[in-house]
Amino acid sequence: MAQELTTEMVRLWLTNNPPEGDIHYTKIMDGMVSPESLPYLRKIIERLVKEKLLKHTTRGFYRIIRKVEPVKWWDADEDEYFELGFPMSHGDDSYFEFIDKVRFSPGDLVVIAGSSNTGKSCLALNLLGENIDKYECVVMGNEYTQLDGVPSPKFKRRMLNMTWVDWMNGNNVPKFTLLPVSNDFEDYIQKDKLNIIDWINLGGDWFMMGKVMESIKQNIGSGLAVVVLQKKKDAQLGYGAEFTEHMADLYLSVDSFGDYESRLTVGKVKDSTGRTTGRMFAFEIMDGGASLTNIREIVKCKSCYGRGYTSKGQCESCLGKKYTDK
User: Fold this and answer.
1) Which Gene3D superfamilies does the entry link to (predicted)?
2) Which listed residue, of 26, 169, 171, 266, carries a Cα 20 to 30 Å from 206's Cα?
3) What residues does 123 pair with on adjacent strands?
4) Mean per-residue pLDDT for 117-127?
5) Distance of CA 106 to the CA centre of its chain
6) Which residues, 6+ apart, have CB-to-CB distance to 107 below 8 Å?
7) What pLDDT is attached to residue 2?
8) What is the model's pTM?
């Protein structure tokens, strides 16, 4: 067998049958190499490692190095943008004015991280409503469907309260797809569409968040992904910390603002035409978590310097909220 086995034979087998992940050298050539020929096979493998066809991973295991072609970056259309409609109030026409300075491109990832009950899902569903007639939309939600795929009554009530959206087309068919997915979201991303995931829970394995985000972005194609995350109260980033931010093109944090409002803080922005990062907006949620109103920019209170109190007690200018209308 030693004289029959050649480097070209092994190279051809690896090219025509590229293994997924690591492979033990004894399984190369479908494991048909005789025991007495294995030393010669190892020599062939050493040659292929030098040729950068294979790389050694662990004891006895190798992984094929896949060929890549140079990217013709000059062929990209620099004028191509993803025209993402952003949530606004359909009652008083107020909106998050920072969005005028943000540009989205196909393949972008938007992250909305919020503490409990501050409007994360409201923002996500309003993003759906604003874009349902512009793009094919897919929604995956932890709380939108039950384990057996039965839709949540709460979800339907919220949709019906968004009276400014026509959810059905002329044939009474929904304009978006709702998938009963509660984990492994990256496996269900639909390429070239607007994918909204509300929300990702890794059950404590937050260090995996970066890989999950990367997989989502790799699979989105010319579409766009919106990912909702939970976060601690007043934390800047969602659970997973910096791992949630690395792949994001727009990062938004949502916290409570007083007893009845929420505060949106603009974090990382990859492509902007002016100052956006650090700006904050207050807003109210109406109609059972379906609608937004009274959206306006806020700044740190100048009377208490954002502390919420003065030497006399609670700040009279901001009423302890730390921020005032701009």
Assistant:
1) P-loop containing nucleotide triphosphate hydrolases
2) 266
3) none
4) 94
5) 13
6) 217, 220, 221, 222, 223, 224
7) 46
8) 0.83
